Every structure is written in structure tokens, then in C-alpha cells.
Amino acid sequence: MFKKNNLLKDGYSEKDYPNFLVNKGMSLYADTILHANEINRRPWIDNKLAYDYYLNSIRPRKRYSKWFKKTKNEDLELLKE
Fold first, then answer.
1. Among 16, 22, 28, 32, whose Cα sits 20 to 30 Å from the Cα of 66?
2. CA of 62: how far to CAs of 1, 27, 45, 76, in Å?
């Protein structure tokens, strides 16, 4: 996210591009959430088209955040027992 390198031209294929994970990662930031929504609204587009959209529309910037993880609810586990 902090470099503008076209990885699909550098040897990666479209099959290696995880569109779902990239959309999930882009939805974590305030400046990229609208772009992720636009790609999510069009699930029929090719991976290359989604990659090119992100490559040409998002400015390079260092973005760091933690992924949301599923937490265990102890009260729910108690109710299950």
C-alpha cells in the first residue's frame, strides 16, 4: 500500500490475487473504505480489473492496523453448557 508497483506484470498471476482479502483489508481504513465498497458492489469483475482499480485510484501511504479476530464470549460458552 505504500508503493505503486504493478505486481501482475512482475510475475504474479490473476489467480494469485486474493480479491476478497484485499477488499477486507481496504475496508479497515477511512480513505479506502469507499473504494472497497465500489469493488464489493461489482463481484462479477475480473481480478485484474479490481487490481488495476486499486492501483490507479488509491494514493500510496503507509497504513497499519490489526485484523479483527473472532473473540470468545465466555457468557455464551456458559449458556451452551
1. 16
2. 6, 15, 27, 38
pTM: 0.70
Q: What is the pLDDT of residues 13-22, one digit of tens each?
A: 777 778 888 8
Per domain, the residue ranges of the chain are: 14-80
DSSP 15: G
Question: Helices 47-57 & 19-26, crossing angle to 10 degrees?
Answer: 30
Q: What residues contact 1, with CB distance under 8 A and at least 6 apart?
A: 58, 60, 61, 62, 63
Nearest CA-CA partner of 35 in 14, 47, 50, 17? 50
**Alpha-carbon span 9 to 62, nearest angstrom:** 23
